[in-house]
Amino acid sequence: MEATDIEHSLVIEGEFDALSIEVKAPNSLHIGVAKKFPAKSNARKVAKALGARDGIIFLPGQWNMNWEDSDQGPPFRQRRYFYYLTGVNFPGCSVTYDIEADKLTIWIPYTAPSTILWFGNTPGPEECLARSDVHDVQYSNKLSEYLASRLAKVKTLYVLRPSQMPKFAEFDNLKPRLLIDTASLQPVMDEARVIKSEYEIEMIRKANAVSSEAHKRVAMSMYGLLNECEIEASFLSSCTAQNAHTQAYPIIAGSGPNASTLHYDANNQPLAGRELLVLDAGAEWDCYASDITRTLPVGSTFSPEARAIYDLVHQMQEECIQHIRPGVVFRDLHLHATLVAVKGLLRLGILHNGTADEIFKHGTGSAFFPHGLGHHVGLDVHDVLSRDLLRPAGESMWGKRRPIGPSSLRAMVKQAMAGNANVDDATTASGDRQWNTLRPNMIVTVEPGLYFCRPYIEAYLLRSNQHKNYVNQAVLERYWGVGGVRVEDCILVTDDGFENLTTAPKGAELLRILGVQH
Amino acid sequence: MEATDIEHSLVIEGEFDALSIEVKAPNSLHIGVAKKFPAKSNARKVAKALGARDGIIFLPGQWNMNWEDSDQGPPFRQRRYFYYLTGVNFPGCSVTYDIEADKLTIWIPYTAPSTILWFGNTPGPEECLARSDVHDVQYSNKLSEYLASRLAKVKTLYVLRPSQMPKFAEFDNLKPRLLIDTASLQPVMDEARVIKSEYEIEMIRKANAVSSEAHKRVAMSMYGLLNECEIEASFLSSCTAQNAHTQAYPIIAGSGPNASTLHYDANNQPLAGRELLVLDAGAEWDCYASDITRTLPVGSTFSPEARAIYDLVHQMQEECIQHIRPGVVFRDLHLHATLVAVKGLLRLGILHNGTADEIFKHGTGSAFFPHGLGHHVGLDVHDVLSRDLLRPAGESMWGKRRPIGPSSLRAMVKQAMAGNANVDDATTASGDRQWNTLRPNMIVTVEPGLYFCRPYIEAYLLRSNQHKNYVNQAVLERYWGVGGVRVEDCILVTDDGFENLTTAPKGAELLRILGVQH
Prior knowledge:
Two copies of one chain form a homodimer. Chain A has helices spanning about 40-50, 80-85, 115-120, 125-130, 145-150, 170-175, 185-195, 200-220, 230-240, 305-325, 330-350, 355-360, 385-390, 405-420, 455-460, 465-470, 475, 505-515; strands at about 55-60, 95-100, 105-110, 135-140, 155-160, 180, 250-255, 275-280, 295, 445, 450, 485, 490-495, 500. By secondary structure, the first copy, chain A, is of the alpha+beta class. The model of chain A is unreliable at about 1-35 and about 420-435 (pLDDT under 50).
């Protein structure tokens, strides 16, 4: 048994505050080892990866913040690295992990009675211990004493970055004898976070279940809705009523041409006369994200153009999902989706004057599928190491928010052809290849899309006669109204394949719910 | 006619971006002088209050921001002082007002095609001119040239604060000859903003209409709801479906004891067995806030204790609202509400062993009504100069978020008795009195409440034998379950009285909708 001592001594601050305070009963929902946040396990994983035998890891959590010139602020959002070591989701805490002693301690603020009146009681030590698997929970007023004593004895202090140094009077005197490491923590925490624990998988599964239910309800009520804002309202309401109060990212409810804006968020246009609606929305559950997109026909009829693109994007997605297993290079899935798209667009006559292979290798596909196939999902919706999942070797600037243009696409094709000829082993730590390869317990989105964004495509085609030659502009003209189609699920990589964590209806099942002829 | 020239020259940034861009048709909803944001009028009001004949006012708007370690961020929130001079609600803009030339110019970013694909098109010059009454809209790439030329000629540059200085190469050379005033703008803008224009009143009325409708819908669906989260969901859904996508502050849906937490926001507890629910929630409309609270019985029966407190708080509110007219000192309304509360609590037996006057003057009332009666509402929910509305003379630390304890209450009583004996004229600019007095076209909340927050009240009573003596703890024991009651409306001060902008049902009307016996 590990020793667990709760410190109850009270801090006296201001009027009315020098009083004993009722300790609330631990929330029974969080009791039970299986449900506890595995903070110790996460801390040990990080310490092991640091290769350190002694030292203190110190991370401050987030405080409440106000907007400029305001006594209000954005919703509280806990620092993700801090949460990973604590499972604590309220402001003003910090955490220490003493590596040699294997002692993980959460430091929490004391809530004064006047603050209870204003903001309610924040969890006390017993609640924190019931919720998170840690060795100790202490009030923050004891933190500087603890740090002064431990930092006088250990060799190394690990912090995430220079701005997150501990702040207390004696620290300046201790600094000269300490090795302060501000660089090692983030990379090892990223590598720990990218492989999800059973607890994390359960949370992300729950976030997906809540959001899938909300997507289903939107579909079921679709024909009563007249404006994008009502789609947003329906999704939001359904998540909130399931006690998921935070969206993992801004809801995108874009109809018609708005569906071709990847991060559209105005959500204020009438649906009348539009063909399709892209709903990209996912709630958080206990800080863990989901990320789900469905495309819904707006009317009860379905134009041949809209239906063709709807089917093609589902095919792109389905084929990619079926390929998911450990060892697969994610870039190759992106290229597969692009090739399926090129073949489909050739069949539809939007592309012409070349073979699928020629057009694919020239990079024209990214005019219609201009973003990455997916990213990691975890404590962040675009979770750690997402930028390494698709980044072509040699490119340092990369990210979910960067369009994939023809030159990036051609670089990916070239690297795929070179790379796949030799190494294809996920465990090979060969620089750029290391984090582009799927491993068990990663969770990634698979979210292909095809878009008819006129300013973007016209700019694309004007840049090269060859792109222009491959595109049949007369046929393309009929597709502007389609706007865009995207389908997105969260996929868990298992030991021998995959599990789709997203249960929201899609494809033919979704069309049945909507009552659309298919 | 003022000259209006639109600059269409394009900025070339990165791949795909060197192309002409379709100018979207102005949104017809915003055409029509009456509906235009009165930016010129606001700018002229500010310049007049500055007492300046020449100089440039420069304000940068807000940019999109990301959370630490994330490619996501909080919802965009425009800087309120910037919005007041522009009516512009998208990122990356700035504004200049040339006082001598009377020329107000909005500077907007150019949207490149690759950005359109990612985030959609931000409004162009024509849309901005259609929406806001300004002299000119220019792309930001021309701003430094303009500033360099104008700042070489004028005497003074007005900025809100040192961190909001313009940033361009030649600025360092211009500084020595300029008077840079970083102090005058905020106070004169506060004094302009606190008196609302017709346009602003219309916006706040609309925000109140949307939110009042949402409060009504919550009441109508109340008996189907089982958890606080469903109340939040219902309110949120109703606002969003009316195209109000932003809440002016976090929704408070607190039942039972949670109703006694003033800024409760967990909203995740079952309603079963609770007596009352406090729903404090208001949406924004075009950046203007509403702020509305209703208290709803949870079951169809209404305990005598809950009903008594419900009625008493409505009486406190109604009497205060009826007193509203120009020249009234807001502090006196707060004291009136407190006196009504003390008399009511005496009738109920919660207070005893003294007359209403004695107990009132001793400050015991603030154990149950521990926050200010209200605040200004405008671009911020706690709008500019709210801290001066109730601040006792001589106290510098003050704000909506500060509890009113017995010593503050006694200071307010003393000052009311002294102050009301002589000056009672709203136009007298006599230091502390100036901004505690109501004037035409102010909009304030009137939001009395009575709370049974056990840790707070117990701390309060332990501090003084006299408070303890006035409270009958045996009777009080029966009221812990009531939790709290608050009722809040947004009240416009008119030339000869008031107009209640909040139309959400309350009091007996609300009980009828809920089907509660009254």
